[in-house]
Design a protein that fits this description.
Number of strands: 49
Structural class: mainly beta
Number of domains: 4
Radius of gyration: 31 Å
Largest sheet: 9 strands, antiparallel
Shape: globular
Oligomer: single chain
Length: about 650
């Protein structure tokens, strides 16, 4: 009988007064001024750099001087000013030779949105950013695989007075007319709410969010399940949910979500499975971010794109006409290159380096010079050999060049096309009419461009030219290629570009083949295709800062910098990290990051535990968490390999089609 009573109790739903979630609905007039530009004004006069920054702080926007700024420098005459905060920052930077340091990313997709206290440092180069009303604008390198002609992405920075937790999502539309950028940033404002809800097994607790119904239940249907049903307006994304018994957290596992309509209100229902649950009283800590509305921030500014990022990248070679040995010709090629060691090139073992040939006068790229030497000495280029054992293959070959006598299997010289720092090899086709518009290409970099941590991305322009006729360029589906040459192709929406990236098959790591095709007219002609190769390196960087429970820290390890926070045990529990003190790092781009911590005035010690990655959140930067000892403020040093913005190599090839 007691067993039956307990079973019936587990299925009993008890109604009561609903638990009210969140606050009242926001006023309609509260949103327009939320993220609008803050006005700053001052009268003309002689001021110090400290007083100038104090005027920026008076606007409610946290602004500080970096440690490298001489605060005792002589006061200067500052003209009268009245305008938006970012324009005031620009004025002070220009007068005192300062620059705005980068800020951590708040959102990185679909828009590059930065936020944080403004830190002014001594200017070390041309200013990248421009004020544009309520935001500051600058260009950053676009995502890997960006189509040709769109190699940069617009980045925006909010005023530091905004509260980070109030910024939900962001979208941005803009037009770039020769560096004059006009557009609109749309920000979603959110409000966090939380509730502590007692619940007993077998019960359902009614909820109410702004007069809309919801419910929380802890029921047994085969196994125990904790289910929360909230109106769509109550939560942007999944709510944060924690189940406790006598203060101790109970592990829950998500069992999916569904939608239903109750009292005419669409609810999102999320279920969580529980194992080995003891019947009795529990506490649910429920919190979420609800959307208050949107604010539109128009902007306009002259923001020229960086020109240094795009370049030919090739080494130039020049010599006078004359008769030379093969050894002398190789020495001329070896002496030229982007690295101190030049461009590694050698003759195949057994080749006669004393053989002589007449070399005509030459001036051109290094690859053109290699082809000229091969032509003069009747030699061929041997296939590239791997330079390392990396599991992450490059979409281009990077290896020392070896040339040797002609033999079966070596491509004829007319299959090569030199394009700046790249050598393009066209692989043989079947020669049938069906394969007439199909191209199989292999790309090879100047060997002197090789460096540790080199990464490369190839982007093909989706538009090609056959004589004077424009044609669309397509790619072969991956599953139609042999396994050892399988590639992953991603079409870039709305940009007409194609990203080509090879995966980690060891047998094709140094043999990447790009499969392209086009529908062509029947007449013979030249097919002109174009694209870009983006090269990026990595370097070791180190940065140090101080972080406190109520004061986040910023590590300028790379651009954008890393935002550090010390989490309380309760905050760590909400993130599923456990009841301890954790250091949360947001926006870490460094590989193999090594962390050292210690007292503010004490010695640093390495944190031996590996960082725990937090689940990816849509559009948010990458987050890592380390458990850290002690209490109060913490001195933090982070070291790791960070990406370096390299060069973008244009790629243009004209292939004869018969």
């Amino acid at each position: 009988m007691r067993f039956l009573l307990a079973l019936l109790a587990a299925w009993t739903v008890i109604a009561g007064e609903p638990v009210v979630l969140g606050g009242p609905a926001p006023r309609a007039d509260a949103l327009p001024g939320w993220a609008a530009a803050t006005g700053v004004s001052w009268a003309a006069g002689r001021v110090s750099v400290v007083d100038a920054v104090a005027r920026l702080n008076a606007s409610g926007n946290p602004t500080r001087l970096a440690a490298d700024v001489a605060v005792g420098q002589e006061a200067i005459e500052l003209p009268a000013f009245s305008g938006p905060y970012w324009q005031a920052v620009e004025t002070i930077c220009e007068r005192f030779h300062l620059d705005l340091r980068p800020a951590p990313l708040l959102i990185e997709d679909p828009v590059h949105l930065a936020w944080g206290a403004a830190e002014l440092a001594t200017a070390k180069g041309p200013r990248r950013w421009q004020p544009a009303g309520a935001v500051a604008l600058w260009w950053v390198p676009g995502p890997a695989g960006q189509a040709e002609g769109d190699l940069h992405k617009l980045a925006l920075r909010l005023e530091p007075r905004l509260v980070e937790s109030e910024v939900g999502s962001a979208t941005c539309t803009y037009a770039d007319d020769a560096g004059m950028v006009t557009g609109t940033l749309t920000l979603s404002r959110v409000e966090s709410w939380s509730a502590t809800i007692p619940i007993t097994t077998g019960n359902t607790v009614p909820l109410r969010f702004r007069d809309q119904p919801g419910e929380l239940s802890l029921l047994r249907q085969g196994q125990w399940s904790l289910t929360v049903a909230l109106p769509e307006a109550a939560s942007v994304g999944p709510p944060r949910l924690r189940l406790e018994r006598e203060g101790q957290p109970i592990r829950i596992r998500s069992a999916g979500q569904d939608r239903r309509t109750t009292e005419g209100v669409v609810q999102v229902v999320r279920s969580h499975r529980l194992t080995d649950l003891v019947e009795g009283a529990y506490t649910v800590r429920l919190s979420a971010d609800c959307r208050l509305g949107e604010a539109e921030l128009p902007f306009a500014a002259k923001v020229p794109k960086p020109s240094a990022a795009i370049g030919d990248g090739s080494t130039r070679a020049t010599w006078d006409a004359g008769r030379r040995t093969l050894g002398q010709a190789l020495a001329m090629l070896l002496a030229r290159g982007p690295s101190p060691a030049g461009n590694p090139i050698l003759a195949e073992l057994g080749a006669n380096v004393r053989a002589t040939a007449d070399l005509p006068a030459f001036s051109g790229t290094w690859w053109e010079a290699v082809l000229a030497v091969c032509q003069a000495f009747d030699l061929r280029i041997l296939p590239a050999m791997p330079m390392d054992s990396s599991d992450d293959p490059l979409p281009v070959q990077v290896a020392p060049v070896t040339i040797g006598p002609p033999r079966a299997g070596l491509p004829e010289l007319d299959r090569y096309h030199a394009s700046g720092a790249l050598l393009v090899e066209r692989l043989p086709s079947s020669g049938t009419a069906a394969d007439r518009g199909k191209l199989s290409l292999r790309l090879r970099l100047e060997p002197g461009l090789a460096e540790d941590g080199l990464s490369a991305t190839v982007s093909w322009n989706g538009k090609a030219q056959f004589g004077t006729i424009p044609v669309d360029l397509n790619v072969t589906e991956p599953d139609k290629q042999p396994d050892e040459q399988r590639h992953r192709f991603v079409r870039l929406p709305g940009r007409g570009g194609i990203m080509v990236r090879t995966p980690g098959q060891a047998d094709s790591r140094n043999n990447p083949v790009h499969q392209l095709s086009a529908e062509l007219p029947a007449d013979p002609g030249g097919l002109r295709i174009s694209g870009t190769v983006r090269l990026n390196g990595r370097s070791t960087a180190m940065a140090e800062t101080v972080v406190a429970p109520d004061a986040p820290g910023v590590l300028h390890l790379a651009d954008p910098p890393v935002l550090l926070r010390l989490l309380t045990p309760n905050q760590a529990l909400e993130l599923g990290l456990g009841n301890a003190r954790w250091l949360l790092a947001s926006g870490v781009t460094a590989d193999e990051a090594e962390l050292m911590t210690g007292p503010v005035d004490g010695q640093l010690a390495a944190v031996e535990q590996r960082p725990r990655p937090l689940p990816a959140s849509a559009g948010k930067p990458r987050q890592l968490a380390w458990p850290v000892p002690g209490e109060g403020a913490l001195r933090v040093m982070l070291q790791g390999a960070v990406p370096e913005t390299g060069i973008i190599l244009p790629l243009t090839v004209t292939v004869d089609i018969r």
